[in-house]
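Database export, one record per block. Field names are fixed; values are copied verbatim from the stored entry.
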Amino acid sequence: SLDEDTRWLEWVTKQFESIAGEDKEIDLDEFKTALKVKESFFAERFFALFDSDGSGSISLDELLKALNLLIHGSETDKLRFLFQVYDVDGSGSIDPDELKTVLKSCLSESAISLPEEKLDDLTLALFESADKDNSGSITFEELKAELETFPEVMENLTISAANWLKPPDLEENKCKTPRYLTRAYWHNNSRKLLFLCLYALLNVLLFIVAMLKNAHGGPWFMVAKGCGQCLNLNCTFIMVLMLRRCLTWLRATWVVRVLPLDQNILLHQIVGYAILIFTIVHTGAHVMNFARMSQNDGTYQMWEYLLTIRPGIGWVNGTASVTGVVLQILICLMVVCSSTFVRRSGHFEVFYWSHLSYVCVWALLVVHCANFWKWFVVPGVLFLIEKLIGIAVSRMGGLYIVEVNLLPSKVTHLVIKRPPFFHFKPGDYVYINVPVIAKYEWHPFTISSAPEQQDTLWLHVRSMGQWTNRLYEYFRQPESQAMSNKRLTASLRDRHHQKRAQSTICSRTVASNEDDDVELTLYQSSGTRTGSQKPDPVELGDVCLGTRELSAKLSENHRYCNIRCYVDGPFGTPTRQIFASEHAVLIGAGIGITPFASLLQSIMCRYRMRKQNCPNSPSYSWCETIKDNEMKLRKVDFIWINRDQKSFEWFVSLLTKLEMDQADEDPEGRFLEMHMYMTSALSKNDMKAIGLQMALDLLAKKEKRDSITGLRTRTQPGRPDWAKVFQKVSEEKKGKVHVFYCGSPALAKDIKAQCEQFGFNFYKENF
């Protein structure tokens, strides 16, 4: 808008005046510093074009003149500026070497690492497409004609020409109705809001009734008793919200349509804060009452009421005051150690061990309050039964980590031998204990393998805290002490037999045609190719692709082992509802892909089974013709957002296989549609990325493979425009849309707000 352009130019003027010297001009180094440009090539090119008199410095008049041209100039003026950026030697045309220099700088700006030969391919793809007359150089008219074949580039050129140095803090906060007051929010969160209203009403009623019953003790005594009765409810209800097995069972019943079972973690947190508030008010009211009593009768001093059993307050030897003080300290400690800052800052163990004090809290509450046991007995028995079942399940059968892959960004891929009695659904999670890492610690992780994968369980563990880092470092050692030669030999033999058995029952024969030649084009930061091969059997679970020998798989980051572990679970998550939806949108941010890796494998396994029933029908469409009680899905959109290029290596083999399953189908009618986003890459509305994105598009069309990931799906730069993404989903009209998300809580808020606008159901992974 004109207002934003005016504000932006005012900022540029102030920024210039703050760094310009007495001569009122800035040199190249000051230009780079002021604008925080990552790659010097574009800073140097822009500086040279802004420096109209060639003096080696820019005056304010020169800068504003150039920027006004970029903002208010014609389309031709802006295209001319872009052409001059690419025409490094000022010859009036762009030769291949100049184009390669520009693309190399674009790659560096976008944090994309490609080998030299791939950079040559990108350069040739763009150059051959733009050089219409085959003269060996690109003229302005040829570049303009080429850009016009990319409508989104032309549409964003006006924005990108100025936006490249627009500061983040100039983003205007538009006045709009708070999300929590919108009709869409109340409609889409009706179950949760109704439940919270009932919960609040119950607390109010308990508080009032308890106050009226104790009116004889004075106002402070009434408040203390009212809070005490609310604490009876909340200190037992918070336990109910953590009955994971009961909640998993209830998710399979009609109750899930009435109660907000998927919000149990949020409700657990809300009840926890309510307990803290009630405890503080309860303690404060008793302190004020004790102060009144010590002044009126003088029998006991204030400190005696609080810290001794002499006044005889309480039903167990007068210990109410002493246990109350201890409870106050423990509850405050638990709440502080449960804060996001503690859990997300690599100190999960602090949260874990402090939370175990709940046993002491419940024991003290039974001693502290005469009636608490009446509230506690039923939930307490259920909780005890769940714990005993968990201990029994985790100790049954011999569970071993039989294979480990160390993936980029410090992700540990664990392959665990699956016990025969272990049944789970896609998206479920388990608690795992690895004694060689920490004997008494249990940590929750989503199962990333499909239920149809009978022999093993997959867990992908991102190193974000002490335990996960110790796990990664343990397996990064050249040879762990836990792996003896005999165990390794036995494990290798066992794995070999398993793979041979899988190969005999594999339902799909790999034909030696062009579609089955999978090239995983992944690149390390050093620019060397790490994969140009068929996916390995282990990487694709029960999918038989390739026949590489097991001995070849032993490497520094990939090994077989035989390490004892214990698993408690599985426990259900909101993603269990995916098979009851018609159009599912799966959004994974970073390692948040893990529940969807399991889901996608399970979905495509069912897809292959049903497709085999009708292999000779060219017009066959499974998602339209097969609708059974287990799965009503007609369309799945999978969106994976990663910060860097290397993170795509975690599941690229799986995604390649999923693409192969649909290789013979019309792209417009595919049941599963994948969308990849790389946030470190400059978006298409950035002037510095226009040439690179055009080259990547052209080469992807030519090779039918993305240069960044090696998938057929083109990796999009930047972040998704959720309004456009959901608008497209809405226009497809495949049925009721359910959006499932796993990843950063901050991103979850943005996605949920958009879902509310479109009337989509939103589910967030929590445990």
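Remark 1: The longest helix spans residues 264-296.
Remark 2: DSSP finds 28 helices and 17 strands in the chain.
End of record.
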